[in-house]
From TrEMBL:
Residues binding substrate: 50-52, 63, 92-93, 118-120, 123, 173
PANTHER family: DNAA INITIATOR-ASSOCIATING PROTEIN DIAA, SEDOHEPTULOSE 7-PHOSPHATE ISOMERASE / DNAA INITIATOR-ASSOCIATING FACTOR FOR REPLICATION INITIATION
Role: Catalyzes the isomerization of sedoheptulose 7-phosphate in D-glycero-D-manno-heptose 7-phosphate.
Domain SIS: 35-197
Lineage: Bacteria, Pseudomonadati, Pseudomonadota, Betaproteobacteria, Burkholderiales
Official protein name in the record: Phosphoheptose isomerase
Note: The reaction produces a racemic mixture of D-glycero-alpha-D-manno-heptose 7-phosphate and D-glycero-beta-D-manno-heptose 7-phosphate.
Associated pathway: Carbohydrate biosynthesis; D-glycero-D-manno-heptose 7-phosphate biosynthesis; D-glycero-alpha-D-manno-heptose 7-phosphate and D-glycero-beta-D-manno-heptose 7-phosphate from sedoheptulose 7-phosphate: step 1/1
NCBIfam families for the chain: PRK13936.1
Stored Gene3D superfamilies: Glucose-6-phosphate isomerase like protein, domain 1
Top-level taxon: Bacteria
EC number(s) per entry: 5.3.1.28
Cofactor note: Binds 1 zinc ion per subunit.
Organism in which the protein naturally occurs: Herminiimonas fonticola
Catalytic activity: 2 D-sedoheptulose 7-phosphate = D-glycero-alpha-D-manno-heptose 7-phosphate + D-glycero-beta-D-manno-heptose 7-phosphate
Length: 198
C-alpha cells in the first residue's frame, strides 16, 4: 500500500513535468530574459513567498548569490523571507499582509525584478508585494499554479506569469523547484555564455 503511494507520487510528478515542459518553456525563457536584462543593467532581483514558496525564494537566492553549477561572480538577489526581525516587526506593528510590500518599498527600485511565488496565486502578502513593485516601476515574474488566482490578474503585459497546470500544491512546488533551476541555468548562460558541455 505505502509502496504504491510512493510510486504514484513519482509517476504523477514525472507526468506533470513532461506535460508542463512545452507549456512553460516560453514563459520561463521570458523570465530569464527579464532577469538577465535587470542584472546586466546593475539592477537586482527580490523574491517572496510563504511556506514552501519561501524556501524556494531562499533556494533561488542562494544559487545566484553563491553559485548554481559554475564558478562566477555573485549576483544581487535578496530573499525577502529571511530577516526575522523585519518580518516580525512588520507583522506585529502593521500586519502580516505587509511583510513583503514594505521590504519592496525599502529595497526595490525601477528596473529591479520581483519574483513572486504562490501556489494558489492568492497569497495576500505576495499580492501586496506585487502591487508595491508595480508602483515602483519594477517588473514582476509570478510563479503560481491552480490557474494563477488573483496574481494572474494583477500583472501587466511587460511581466511574466509561469503557471503550473495542476491543482495539487506538492506537485506545483515540485515544478516550481525545477523552474528555479531553469532560471538559474538560463541566467548563468545569458550572463556568462555556455560551458563546454553545452
Amino acid at each position: 500500500m505505502i509502496n504504491q503511494r510512493i510510486l504514484s507520487h513519482f509517476h504523477e510528478s514525472a507526468e506533470l513535468k513532461i506535460q508542463a515542459a512545452s507549456l512553460l518553456a516560453r514563459p520561463i525563457e521570458q523570465a530569464v530574459e527579464l532577469m538577465f536584462s535587470a542584472l546586466s543593467n546593475g539592477n537586482k532581483i527580490l523574491a517572496c513567498g510563504n511556506g514552501g514558496s519561501a524556501a524556494d525564494c531562499q533556494h533561488f537566492s542562494a544559487q545566484l548569490v553563491g553559485r548554481f553549477e559554475r564558478e562566477r561572480l555573485p549576483l544581487p538577489v535578496i530573499a525577502l523571507t529571511t530577516d526575522t526581525s523585519i518580518l516580525t516587526a512588520i507583522g506585529n506593528d502593521y500586519s502580516y499582509q505587509e511583510i513583503f510590500s514594505k521590504q519592496v518599498q525599502a529595497f526595490g527600485q525601477s528596473g529591479d525584478v520581483l519574483l513572486a511565488l504562490s501556489t494558489s496565486g492568492n497569497s495576500a502578502n505576495v499580492i501586496a508585494a506585487i502591487e508595491a513593485a508595480l508602483e515602483r516601476d519594477m517588473r514582476v515574474v509570478v510563479m503560481t499554479g491552480k490557474g494563477g488566482g488573483a496574481m494572474a490578474k494583477l500583472i501587466t503585459d511587460a511581466d511574466v506569469h509561469i503557471c503550473v497546470p495542476h491543482d495539487r500544491t506538492a506537485r506545483i512546488q515540485e515544478v516550481h523547484l525545477l523552474t528555479i533551476h531553469c532560471l538559474c541555468d538560463g541566467i548563468d548562460v545569458a550572463l556568462f555564455g555556455g560551458d563546454e558541455n553545452d
